[in-house]
Design a protein that fits this description.
The protein contains four helices and three strands, in the order H-H-H-E-E-E-H. The chain has a three-stranded antiparallel sheet. Helix content is 73%, strand content 7%.
């Protein structure tokens, strides 16, 4: 059986879903802001798309090749790979202790009031919860992308098997 079309469809789906999910998510957030700005929304969409595409290229594709080589190409392992590809870069990039040397303080709007997420360079409980929520959200988008890859991979494989018989 020739796996090239199968890989092509699966990789296309696995590339478009993780790049489109964050793009749509962050665009909707920007549009829902009190002062939506079309050029800001477009910029946010472009940046989200590029960052997501880089995650797929740097982590997703090499991870899939590694899973295939290790003969661990299962739905669960691909979802876990997607989760890790989504949350690890976000976790490193948004690590709250990187500002601790500067004695920084940070606050943000939680939907009801301004809350302190960092005081004198030390994350507060709100800061840690916000950090974990952000990392898990990106991991969830990655896991969904892995699931989409797996579904497309299985569907394209089953249709190829039907055509051979």
């Amino acid at each position: 059986m020739n796996n090239e079309p199968r890989w092509l469809w699966s990789l296309t789906a696995a590339t478009l879903v993780p790049t489109c999910l964050p793009t749509i998510y962050f665009s909707v957030l920007a549009l829902a802001s009190p002062y939506p700005n079309s050029s800001a929304v477009l910029l946010i969409a472009i940046v989200a798309f590029i960052v997501s595409l880089v995650h797929v290229i740097l982590f997703g594709i090499p991870g899939l090749l590694l899973l295939s080589k290790m003969r661990q190409f299962t739905g669960w392992s691909i979802c876990l790979l997607g989760f890790l590809a989504g949350c690890l870069p976000m976790g490193l990039w948004s690590w709250p202790l990187k500002s601790s040397l500067h004695g920084a303080s940070e606050s943000h709007w939680d939907g009801e009031k301004i809350v302190s997420s960092m005081a004198d360079g030390i994350p507060t409980l709100v800061g840690w919860i916000s950090y974990v929520e952000g990392v898990m959200w990106m991991g969830a988008m990655g896991a969904v992308s892995g699931l989409v890859f797996w579904v497309v991979w299985n569907k394209s494989g089953s249709s190829s098997r039907r055509e051979e018989h």
